[in-house]
Amino acid sequence: MIGVNPRPIAAALVAAVLLLSACAPTGDDSVRVEPTAQPVYPQLATDPDIPVVEDVAYVPGGDELQKLDLCLPEQPATQGDRNVEGVPPTSVQPRPAVILVHGGSWRRGEKDNVSWRAMCQWFARNGYIAASIDYRLAPAVSFPAPLEDVEAAVRWMRDPDRVERYGVDPERIGLFGASAGGHLVSLVGTSGEGDWTSGTRVAAVVELSAPVDLHGPMNAEPLLESDILEFLGCRDYADCPAAALASPAGQIDPTDPPFFVAHSTEEFIPISQSDGFVAALRDAGVDTTYVTLEGRLHAASMLDDAMLERVLTFFDDKLGPVPVTLASGRR
User: Are the CB atoms for 292 and 263 separated by under 8 Å?
Assistant: First the structure.
């Protein structure tokens, strides 16, 4: 990347890699935009300049799916012994971290598919310590197991060992999720009360196309309704106590962290889900950015260059500053 700014190049790489297609002011403002590109099939996604530590267990001795891939920013290593994963320790200058949670109706998806690997490396290219996680899936498990996995990943990232080894700032951890992953990061973001710097609390959440109110049918496709009930471990909504606990829209309180919500106007998860969620967040005084995209694009398929820039601007604002390094040339 000599002599050029890597940020637009990295954004273009990810946009070409993800199934494509959306700058919103932060705070209480909203914006509606149109897609700037048509969806394309994934192509080569890896960034050879961004090291990836694969298949790290965030629950020691846990399930095969309780693992993550860690994407590390380019930067000079500190002197000293190599760490246990074989990657040199990072600079002691603290960095914010972002944990990525894939979608797939809570029953499929992988942390290391071409789209999520590209996104993980894109965050690292822009100076964040990023982790793309797998989590236990239905029908083998039901709620709250996937939620517990995301919370375990937050605790893993905040652990003093990660703080020392990778330079993670434990007070600046954000979440990024799409579709079912967007639901899980929203639920972590709205669970609990108080400061965002300890336990499983986080300092910022980005969710794309998330179903956030699971109390009853959402007038979505029958297959999605079936997946929701399977995730909840219920036969029907009439007798489903898990539905309230699993609905981020019902967990909001004024101490929740800033949210960035994006949703397409005509996609298969009704936009009323995000409309109601954003209204409830703002009613509680939670700093909320809302971007709606014209058309039917779902979740990660909304991530064109403009939407990627919005996401990065949001995290920079809420989790920054991001340390400058000669290797990344970010700023």
Answer: yes
Question: Using CA atoms, how far apart are residues 132 and 102, in angstroms rounded to an integer?
Answer: 8
Q: Determine the Cα–Cα distance for residues 63 and 230; give it in Å rounded to an integer.
A: 20
**Token pair for residue 241?**
């106590």
- The C-alpha atoms of residue 32 and residue 306 are separated, in whole angstroms, by 12
Q: Are 198 and 177 in contact (CB under 8 A)?
A: no
- Evaluate whether 173 touches 96 at the Cβ level (below 8 Å): yes
- The C-alpha atoms of residue 15 and residue 297 are separated, in whole angstroms, by 13
What's the rounded Cα separation, in Å, for the pair 111 and 44? 16
Q: Compute CA distances 128 → 14, 67, 315, whole Å.
A: 15, 19, 10
* Torsion, Cα of 237, 239, 245, 246 (10° steps): -30
Contact 309, 23 (CB under 8 A): yes
Q: What is the DSSP string of 140-167?
A: T--TTHHHHHHHHHHHHHHSHHHHHHH-
Is 45:314 a contact under the CB 8 Å cutoff?
no
CB neighbourhood size of 178 (10 A):
30
* Three-class secondary structure of residue 60 per DSSP: coil
10-residue block means of pLDDT along the chain (331 residues)?
Answer: 40 42 53 66 60 96 97 61 45 86 96 93 94 98 98 98 95 98 98 95 97 89 90 94 96 98 94 97 97 93 90 96 61 42
* Alpha carbons 194 and 6: distance in angstroms, whole number: 37
d(C-alpha 304, C-alpha 38), whole Å: 9
In Å, how far are 7, 96, 128, 168, 325 from 331, measured between CA atoms? 8, 16, 13, 20, 9
- Cα separation of 58 and 238, whole Å? 36
Q: Which residues contact 56 (CB under 8 A, 6 or more apart)?
A: 67, 68, 69, 70, 85
- Terminal Cα-to-Cα distance of the chain (whole angstroms): 13
For β-strands 52-57 and 95-101, DSSP reports them as unpaired
